[in-house]
Amino acid sequence: MLVIFDCDGVLVDSEPIANTCFARALQREGLNWSVEQTMRRLMGRSMKSCVEIIEGELGRALPTDFVDRLQADTMQAFQDAPLRAVPGVIAAINAIEAAGAVTCVASSGGLDKMRVSLDITGLWQRFEGRIFSSTEVPRGKPFPDLFLHAALRMDQQPFACTVIEDSLPGIQAARAAGMRAMAYVGATHTDAAALKAAGGRPFDNMSKLPALVRS
Predict the structure, then answer these.
(1) Structural domains of the chain, with CATH
(2) Backbone dihedral region of 44: left (phi > 0), alpha (psi from -120 to 50 degrees) or beta?
(3) Who has the most CB within 10 Å: 52, 171, 182, 188?
(4) pLDDT at res. 189
(5) Over pLDDT 70: what percentage of the chain?
(6) Which pairing describes strands 180-184 and 201-203: parallel, antiparallel, or unpaired?
Protein backbone atom coordinates (compact mmCIF):
# COMPACT_ATOMS: atom_id res chain seq x y z
CA MET A 1 0.00 0.00 0.00
CA LEU A 2 1.10 3.53 -0.80
CA VAL A 3 -0.02 6.42 1.41
CA ILE A 4 0.29 9.77 -0.38
CA PHE A 5 0.41 12.85 1.83
CA ASP A 6 -0.43 16.33 0.66
CA CYS A 7 2.04 18.84 2.10
CA ASP A 8 0.38 22.12 3.10
CA GLY A 9 -2.25 21.64 5.78
CA VAL A 10 -1.58 17.90 6.11
CA LEU A 11 2.13 17.61 6.92
CA VAL A 12 2.87 21.24 7.74
CA ASP A 13 0.51 23.76 9.33
CA SER A 14 1.14 26.29 6.59
CA GLU A 15 -2.22 27.17 5.07
CA PRO A 16 -3.08 30.14 7.35
CA ILE A 17 0.41 31.61 6.93
CA ALA A 18 0.62 31.05 3.17
CA ASN A 19 -2.88 32.34 2.47
CA THR A 20 -2.33 35.45 4.58
CA CYS A 21 0.67 36.22 2.37
CA PHE A 22 -1.39 35.41 -0.74
CA ALA A 23 -4.27 37.67 0.30
CA ARG A 24 -1.86 40.56 0.93
CA ALA A 25 -0.27 40.05 -2.48
CA LEU A 26 -3.70 40.07 -4.13
CA GLN A 27 -4.69 43.24 -2.30
CA ARG A 28 -1.59 44.96 -3.70
CA GLU A 29 -2.95 44.08 -7.15
CA GLY A 30 -6.41 45.44 -6.37
CA LEU A 31 -8.16 42.14 -5.64
CA ASN A 32 -9.51 42.56 -2.13
CA TRP A 33 -10.06 38.97 -1.09
CA SER A 34 -9.94 38.10 2.59
CA VAL A 35 -7.73 35.26 3.79
CA GLU A 36 -10.86 33.09 3.98
CA GLN A 37 -11.85 33.93 0.40
CA THR A 38 -8.33 33.25 -0.79
CA MET A 39 -8.40 29.82 0.85
CA ARG A 40 -11.81 29.01 -0.59
CA ARG A 41 -10.88 29.99 -4.13
CA LEU A 42 -7.23 28.93 -4.36
CA MET A 43 -6.27 26.41 -1.67
CA GLY A 44 -5.04 23.10 -3.00
CA ARG A 45 -4.46 24.33 -6.55
CA SER A 46 -1.19 24.68 -8.44
CA MET A 47 0.30 28.16 -8.72
CA LYS A 48 -0.31 28.05 -12.48
CA SER A 49 -4.00 27.43 -11.86
CA CYS A 50 -4.12 30.12 -9.17
CA VAL A 51 -2.60 32.68 -11.51
CA GLU A 52 -5.17 31.83 -14.20
CA ILE A 53 -8.02 32.31 -11.73
CA ILE A 54 -6.62 35.61 -10.43
CA GLU A 55 -5.99 37.03 -13.88
CA GLY A 56 -9.54 36.07 -14.86
CA GLU A 57 -10.86 38.01 -11.87
CA LEU A 58 -8.65 41.03 -12.56
CA GLY A 59 -9.17 41.00 -16.31
CA ARG A 60 -5.45 41.55 -16.85
CA ALA A 61 -2.11 39.82 -16.50
CA LEU A 62 -0.31 39.86 -13.19
CA PRO A 63 3.15 41.48 -13.04
CA THR A 64 5.89 39.16 -14.21
CA ASP A 65 7.47 39.14 -10.74
CA PHE A 66 4.20 38.46 -8.85
CA VAL A 67 4.88 34.78 -8.16
CA ASP A 68 8.54 35.33 -7.23
CA ARG A 69 7.62 38.10 -4.78
CA LEU A 70 4.82 36.02 -3.29
CA GLN A 71 7.11 33.03 -2.84
CA ALA A 72 9.79 35.16 -1.19
CA ASP A 73 7.25 36.70 1.20
CA THR A 74 5.82 33.28 2.03
CA MET A 75 9.21 31.69 2.68
CA GLN A 76 10.12 34.54 5.00
CA ALA A 77 6.82 34.17 6.84
CA PHE A 78 7.48 30.44 7.28
CA GLN A 79 10.82 31.29 8.89
CA ASP A 80 9.35 34.01 11.10
CA ALA A 81 6.26 32.14 12.33
CA PRO A 82 7.95 29.58 12.78
CA LEU A 83 6.25 26.90 10.73
CA ARG A 84 5.30 23.69 12.56
CA ALA A 85 4.28 20.19 11.58
CA VAL A 86 0.56 19.40 11.85
CA PRO A 87 -0.04 18.08 15.39
CA GLY A 88 0.28 14.31 15.55
CA VAL A 89 1.30 13.78 11.94
CA ILE A 90 4.82 12.50 12.66
CA ALA A 91 3.52 9.84 15.06
CA ALA A 92 0.90 8.92 12.44
CA ILE A 93 3.57 8.51 9.75
CA ASN A 94 5.63 6.35 12.11
CA ALA A 95 2.69 4.06 12.77
CA ILE A 96 1.67 3.84 9.10
CA GLU A 97 5.19 2.92 8.00
CA ALA A 98 5.60 0.47 10.89
CA ALA A 99 2.51 -1.32 9.64
CA GLY A 100 4.24 -1.87 6.28
CA ALA A 101 2.87 0.94 4.10
CA VAL A 102 5.08 3.03 1.82
CA THR A 103 4.70 6.81 2.02
CA CYS A 104 5.35 9.80 -0.22
CA VAL A 105 4.37 13.46 -0.66
CA ALA A 106 2.43 14.92 -3.60
CA SER A 107 1.68 18.63 -3.43
CA SER A 108 0.46 21.50 -5.55
CA GLY A 109 3.40 23.48 -4.16
CA GLY A 110 6.68 23.77 -5.99
CA LEU A 111 9.71 21.77 -4.88
CA ASP A 112 11.51 24.92 -3.70
CA LYS A 113 8.62 25.80 -1.41
CA MET A 114 8.37 22.25 -0.09
CA ARG A 115 12.09 22.11 0.52
CA VAL A 116 11.74 25.10 2.84
CA SER A 117 8.55 24.07 4.63
CA LEU A 118 9.50 20.41 5.07
CA ASP A 119 13.04 21.29 6.11
CA ILE A 120 11.82 23.70 8.80
CA THR A 121 9.58 20.97 10.22
CA GLY A 122 12.22 18.23 9.97
CA LEU A 123 10.36 16.28 7.28
CA TRP A 124 12.43 16.90 4.14
CA GLN A 125 14.98 14.18 4.89
CA ARG A 126 12.18 11.85 5.95
CA PHE A 127 10.59 12.00 2.49
CA GLU A 128 13.55 12.95 0.30
CA GLY A 129 13.38 11.13 -3.02
CA ARG A 130 9.65 10.58 -2.55
CA ILE A 131 8.41 14.17 -2.96
CA PHE A 132 6.37 15.09 -6.04
CA SER A 133 5.08 18.46 -7.23
CA SER A 134 2.34 19.59 -9.59
CA THR A 135 5.11 21.31 -11.57
CA GLU A 136 6.04 17.82 -12.82
CA VAL A 137 2.69 17.13 -14.52
CA PRO A 138 0.58 18.84 -17.20
CA ARG A 139 -2.41 19.53 -14.94
CA GLY A 140 -2.63 20.18 -11.22
CA LYS A 141 -5.38 19.23 -8.78
CA PRO A 142 -8.35 18.66 -9.15
CA PHE A 143 -7.08 16.63 -12.11
CA PRO A 144 -5.62 13.21 -11.23
CA ASP A 145 -2.25 13.74 -12.97
CA LEU A 146 -0.14 14.39 -9.86
CA PHE A 147 -1.38 11.43 -7.85
CA LEU A 148 -1.07 9.09 -10.83
CA HIS A 149 2.48 10.39 -11.37
CA ALA A 150 3.33 9.70 -7.72
CA ALA A 151 1.89 6.17 -7.92
CA LEU A 152 3.85 5.44 -11.10
CA ARG A 153 7.09 6.73 -9.60
CA MET A 154 6.49 4.67 -6.46
CA ASP A 155 5.62 1.56 -8.55
CA GLN A 156 2.11 1.26 -7.09
CA GLN A 157 -1.30 0.75 -8.67
CA PRO A 158 -3.87 3.52 -8.04
CA PHE A 159 -6.28 1.14 -6.31
CA ALA A 160 -3.57 0.39 -3.74
CA CYS A 161 -3.12 4.08 -2.85
CA THR A 162 -4.61 6.16 -0.06
CA VAL A 163 -4.39 9.94 -0.32
CA ILE A 164 -4.39 12.24 2.73
CA GLU A 165 -5.75 15.68 1.80
CA ASP A 166 -7.34 18.77 3.33
CA SER A 167 -8.54 20.62 0.22
CA LEU A 168 -11.46 20.08 -2.12
CA PRO A 169 -9.29 20.01 -5.28
CA GLY A 170 -7.07 17.44 -3.56
CA ILE A 171 -9.94 15.12 -2.67
CA GLN A 172 -11.37 15.50 -6.18
CA ALA A 173 -7.98 14.65 -7.69
CA ALA A 174 -7.59 11.55 -5.52
CA ARG A 175 -11.02 10.23 -6.44
CA ALA A 176 -10.43 11.01 -10.13
CA ALA A 177 -7.25 8.93 -9.89
CA GLY A 178 -9.22 5.97 -8.51
CA MET A 179 -7.62 6.26 -5.08
CA ARG A 180 -9.07 6.17 -1.59
CA ALA A 181 -9.20 9.65 -0.06
CA MET A 182 -8.91 10.59 3.62
CA ALA A 183 -9.95 14.17 4.40
CA TYR A 184 -8.17 15.84 7.30
CA VAL A 185 -10.66 18.29 8.83
CA GLY A 186 -8.85 19.08 12.08
CA ALA A 187 -8.04 22.66 11.03
CA THR A 188 -10.55 25.49 11.21
CA HIS A 189 -10.17 26.36 7.51
CA THR A 190 -11.38 22.98 6.25
CA ASP A 191 -14.91 22.35 4.96
CA ALA A 192 -15.76 18.89 6.24
CA ALA A 193 -19.12 18.69 4.47
CA ALA A 194 -17.64 19.60 1.08
CA LEU A 195 -14.73 17.18 1.46
CA LYS A 196 -17.08 14.36 2.43
CA ALA A 197 -19.42 15.14 -0.46
CA ALA A 198 -16.46 14.94 -2.84
CA GLY A 199 -15.66 11.42 -1.66
CA GLY A 200 -13.24 12.00 1.20
CA ARG A 201 -13.51 10.17 4.50
CA PRO A 202 -13.28 12.92 7.16
CA PHE A 203 -11.11 12.61 10.27
CA ASP A 204 -10.31 15.37 12.73
CA ASN A 205 -7.19 14.14 14.51
CA MET A 206 -3.99 12.64 13.10
CA SER A 207 -4.00 10.03 15.87
CA LYS A 208 -6.96 8.43 14.07
CA LEU A 209 -5.20 8.17 10.71
CA PRO A 210 -3.22 4.90 11.12
CA ALA A 211 -6.38 2.94 11.98
CA LEU A 212 -8.26 4.52 9.06
CA VAL A 213 -5.46 3.63 6.65
CA ARG A 214 -5.55 0.01 7.85
CA SER A 215 -9.34 -0.22 7.62
Answers:
(1) 2-13+83-214 (3.40.50.1000), 15-80 (1.10.150.240)
(2) left
(3) 171
(4) 86
(5) 100
(6) parallel
CB atoms within 10 A of CB 110: 16
Q: What is the pTM of this model?
A: 0.92
Query: What DSSP designation does 53 have?
Result: H
- The answer to whether residue 53 scores a pLDDT higher than 90 is yes
Question: Looking at residue 56, what is its pLDDT?
Answer: 97
167 neighbors 179 (Cβ within 8 angstroms): no
Residue 171 in contact with residue 199, Cβ under 8 Å? yes
Q: Is the pLDDT of residue 214 over 90?
A: yes
With CA atoms as reference, report the closest residue to 15 among 89, 108, 104, 106.
Answer: 108
Question: How many other C-beta atoms can be found within 10 angstroms of the C-beta atom of residue 201?
Answer: 14
Q: At what angle do helices 66-80 and 47-58 cross, to 10 degrees?
A: 120
At residue 82, does pLDDT exceed 90? no
How confident is the model over 90-104, as pLDDT tens digits?
999 999 999 999 999
* Burial degree of 64 (CB within 10 A; 0-12, 13-18, 19+): exposed
Q: Which of 6, 15, 27 is nearest to 103 (CA)?
A: 6
